[in-house]
Amino acid sequence: MINIEIDGKHIEVENGCSVIDAADRLGIYIPHFCYHKKLSIAANCRMCLVQIEKAPKPLPACATPVAEGMKVFTASEQAVKAQKGVMEFLLINHPLDCPICDQGGECELQDLAVGYGGSASRYSEEKRVVLHKDIGPLVAAEEMSRCINCTRCVRFGTEIGGATELGQAFRGEHAEIMAFMSDTVDSELSGNMIDLCPVGALTSKPFRYSARTWELSRRKSISPHDSLGSNLAVQVKNNHVMRVLPIENEDINECWLSDKDRFSYEGLNSTERLTKPMIKQGGKWLEVEWQVALEYVTNGLRQIVHKAGAEHIGALATPHSTLEELYLLQKLVRGLGSHNVDFRLRQSDFSADSKQTGAPWLGMAVADINHVDRFLLVGSFLRKDHPLLASRVRQATKKGAQVNLIHATDDDLLMPLANKEIVPPTEMTTVLAQVLKALAITKQATLDTSVQEAVQSVTLSASAQAMADSLASGERVAILLGNFAQQHPQASQLQLLAQHIAALCGATFGFLGEAANSVGGYLAQAVPFVGTAHGMNASTMLAAPRKAYILLNVEAELDTHNPQQALAAMNAADMVVALSAYKHHATEYADVLLPIAPFTETSGTFVSSEGRAQSFKGTVQPSGEARPAWKVLRVLGNMLNISGFDYNNSETVRDEALGSADVSAKLGNILHGMTAQATTWNVAELQRVSDVPIYAADAIVRRAASLQKTRDAATPRALMHSVELTKLNLKPGEMVKLTQGHGSARLTIIADDSLPHGIVRVAAGHAITAELGAMFGDIMVDRA
Amino acid sequence: MEKIANFFKTFLLLELVKGMALTGRHFFARKITVQFPEEKTPQGFRFRGLHALRRYANDEERCIGCKLCEAVCPALAIHIETEERTDGTRRTTRYDIDLVKCIFCGLCEEACPVDAIVETRILEYHGEKRGDLYYTKPMLLAVGEKYEEQIAKDKALDAKYR
Prior knowledge:
The complex is a heterodimer of chains A (784) and B (162).
Chain A: E1 2-6, E2 9-13, H1 19-25, E3 49-52, E4 59-60, E5 71-73, H2 77-92, H3 108-116, E6 133-134, E7 139-141, H4 152-161, E8 166-169, E9 176-179, H5 192-196, E10 203-204, E11 217-222, E12 231-237, E13 240-246, H6 259-263, E14 278-281, E15 284-287, H7 290-307, E16 313-317, H8 323-335, E17 341-342, E18 374-378, H9 382-385, H10 387-398, E19 402-407, E20 419-422, H11 428-443, H12 449-456, H13 462-472, E21 477-481, H14 483-487, H15 491-505, E22 508-511, H16 520-523, E23 529-530, E24 533-534, H17 538-543, E25 548-552, H18 563-572, E26 575-580, H19 586-589, E27 592-595, E28 604-607, E29 613-616, H20 629-639, H21 650-658, E30 687-689, H22 699-702, E31 718-720, H23 722-727, E32 735-740, E33 743-751, E34 759-761, E35 777-778, E36 780-783
Parallel strand pairs in A: 1-5, 16-17, 16-25, 18-19, 18-21, 19-20, 21-22, 25-26, 26-27, 30-34, 31-33
Antiparallel strand pairs in A: 1-2, 3-4, 3-5, 6-7, 7-10, 8-9, 11-12, 12-13, 14-15, 14-27, 23-24, 28-29, 30-35, 32-33, 32-36
Chain B: H1 2-12, H2 14-28, E1 51-53, H3 68-72, E2 78-84, E3 90-98, H4 107-111, E4 117-119, E5 134-135, H5 137-159
Antiparallel strand pairs in B: 1-4, 2-3, 3-5
């Protein structure tokens, strides 16, 4: 430890600490631009110059490590003179037209110029002009003359985002920031550059010029998208969500936010919002009062229960719904006498149901990911499905962590991979079994009888051996099953094998939950198995059509594993009640549309994949006559005379659903009473592999206009290995007709040689592929 | 001595005489009453009357939608909404001043970096029903267009003090 003195105050800090950090701990502010606690030190803005005893010249506080007995003066005559001089230099080329700039009012340069600069400019020569650039639909680089070349955005891209998408070209007077790799910035974390930019050079395109920072009130919320549970500051003006910023939480999102969390707010103000209850009468939609709509629903449900039986009622919800909504939905359905309720809409293998010790979760805290030194990722589009978690894994690799990947596609994760095995989905269990076998041999362990048979039959491959060696050499090992592994037709097999691999190498093993409430859904008991009772799960409910469906936030053709089957089931049903914030395709098959409030307009709780229950309050009033879904379900419960529906606020619902705030006892990934099977399923020549594109994953992002203009939201194309293309006599770029079951889709076909043979990669969750069948399975490709 | 003076003051009604003398002086002095509206009092070039939004000579609106006037307004009388115009500049889609709330302090004019919002010499405006004194952007621009000559003159006179 080192003793230093800053402005006469003593502090003891560890060796290697910088002066600016030490000052920060003492609560002494040193002005700075290029320094950022999460980024590397650049020391190019020179704003943090301080006087240090015995140093002949002022030194930058961010790049000066502390030394024993160092005496620092942050406000001495020399320091102040240096800071004032630097500020004058910075302002020489910076336009002095703050009223025009979008950053005005929240600009670090503006604040520091007032605090540390002179009162008037002495510069009358010509200023430098840097041309504006178009770097994509999210980040505006319209006023690059304002840039002070702090390179925070460049360092962010390189260090956090994983790719140097922005870079600094040319030197000295001509230095400018520009897009490096392509014309645009396509990172799924690009919005953070807006926050990092200390001036108005990079601003938010969707928010641009729509409001000033001082007009906005700041309300806390939780992200409803991925399972990380990012903390949001929703900024509101006139009951209108204007933009979303991160709230710093070191355990969850640090100070970052993925673009999906940041820009999805545009979907809240979409013109597709449903604002009045509607009933279909004689093929026409009528806007009605809530009372009429709710009576229609209760009468309809009563009749179906009376005529066909309660088991003919099915309820489906998305995992983006709040805990309270999911809890009341299952309580309503169970109150009617049915157990057909599920929120795992994209899952296809339910054989692990009720064999699990608890709700499947991450298996560790999110913050611990940074300290893991060996990863085994199974079936995960990590960067697109969990952008900020991917960044944490990336940080771990910088400290020497090895990442092993078993997946069906070879998307660039922008991090070094120690080993990867890109195989068709049918072979994923085999690869896992090989890794397990190799580990068992290395560790000389006898395997549990439940997996023995499956493991014996496989032959070891070199890469499986390498993976096993990598895992065995680690101290902190994590095995993570991604969205793809959870949607996989053999999900429970993958889980079982991963569980045994984890047991052999002392690893934590868990799931990267698909959505904000993937864990919360289990805790809310929105699953068909509770106690001894067993209802129908999301898959069987659609395979054997029910007479009535209650849909919560669901768009049947986009949110389900098999859209074809889902649509058929909806069309065949006597009654479909859709609780939705949007007027969507349900107008074709539903009988009642009930407008409900999205996350900004209701209170609720999301349980993130690490089992953290985070409650939030509404930030704005519901749009039109929309109402929070928990209130709608509560009233429906009352009208159906189901007891125990007398809640006055969402907190009571949450407390009833969760019991206590500590949910750790209810989490568990371990499977009991399952046997691993060596066999896989039979496939035709070509099988489908599906990802859910990042900006097609839920109803809100699908309507976020700016996100929909990004490259990630481009119209999906079908991808195949070029050898398979020649076999079918197709050329890349041609339109093809993909057929699954009785539905088809016309897409452009593209060659992708990183895919395994026999695979067609087609995105799910998109209107263009909504007529196709299951996300995995046989598919036919013909020239269109 | 003082006691004697006070004694005489008690019955000589000196204060009354003093007061009447003041009244008498004004009675015979030149009258300053102005016969409004036929006659008008002189106004300074910084007179703070009805607001106006100005344009440049090339017909472009001056206002850049920075919202400083809205922020500074102590009576919260200004309401502005902005958007990005097709040429990439920020422009107001709404610029309303509620003259019923306005206290004519002139801070909006003071805050404006482009001399877009000004207070003119006009004081004889009125409203006949509720809402008449809620001035919207077209109304304010119309005022500006009509009196631009006078406004420009006044601004020029004030310029050397800024």
